[in-house]
Design brief:
Elements (H helix, E strand, L loop, with lengths): L20 E10 L2 E11 L4 E5 L6 H9 L6 E6 L15 E4 L11 H11 L4 H10 L15 H13 L5 E5 L7 H16 L3 E5 L3 H7 L2 E6 L2 E6 L1 H7 L4 E6 L5 H5 L4 E7 L2 E6 L2 H12 L5 E4 L2 H9 L7 E2 L16
Parallel strand pairs: 3-7, 3-8, 5-6, 6-7
Antiparallel strand pairs: 1-2, 1-4, 8-9, 10-12, 10-13, 11-12, 13-14
Amino acid sequence: MTPTTPRSAPDSPGSADSPAVLLEGVHKTYGDTRAVDGVSFTVARGEFFGLLGPNGAGKTTLIEIMEGQRRADAGTVTVLGTSPWPRNVALLPRLGVQTQASAFFVRLTAREHLCTMAALYRCDTAAAERALASVGLTEQGDTRVDDLSGGQRQRLAIASALVHDPELIFLDEPTAALDPQARRALWQVLRDLKGAGRTIVYTTHHLDEAEALCDRVAIMVGGRVAALDSPARLIAAGSPTTRLLVPAGRLTLAAALAIPGVDRAAEEADAIVLETLESGRVLAAVDEIAGLQGVQTRTASLEDVYLTLTGAGTGAGAEAGASAGAGAGAGAPQP
């Protein structure tokens, strides 16, 4: 497809039933590099939409185009019923933006930081308190920003993006560099945003997170959308194979291959791994031969789909259960 001159999106704000984001044939090149190569999709109002892909896939460029920070070379870009480019100042109060490198007033307390952000958007201090509470930081409100933990700073970055009650929120790797406990705690914040009906466009490299949180995901490869659907439907359309992991020493490779319904078997580290489309039948056979204590079952996950599409391998899948035998927001308007 030959890129054409970009068309301006309508200037009207659009109805509540119109998409929050509409992209049609969007292109962006840098020299010989096609960063975004004919991307089209919509994001419904109230949807939690994930944008996934390896580094260099075009995610950041696409997000910047949607935010109005960058101009598309071709295609139509509509955000909340209007064009974000040229830099649409009237659109900024309707957007909330959290970036990986969010800026803070580090010598202020968390509460003072949010009050300052609220003032930039001409909101009152009550808005700052609501944003503080929405991310679970009320108790840390009087703590200086530079004394907050990494996870608390990430929450504060999201609160900064929420302080003016935006209609559409862009979150860029909100759980990056967090330890597992802090990451899971932030999941609840994101679930609460989703439950409140916020429209969220979100990037992450954590596939388990996207599977748990997103209504739909677009997987980008080489500037194009390689797949777009709900995580459940993408997984269902992938491999239906179940992998059974039997602890080493409990089952020989030859015995595993002789079980009816086993398609493949291999030795991996401290386990014999069986692949099957008939997990119930094979589990029953394994129970008779070796018992089910310590046996694990793994089914396909969004990570498997992602790795297949990006050419990075097959992935190990996500555990379907435990042992079978055990039972600063950017883009604030100027005052």
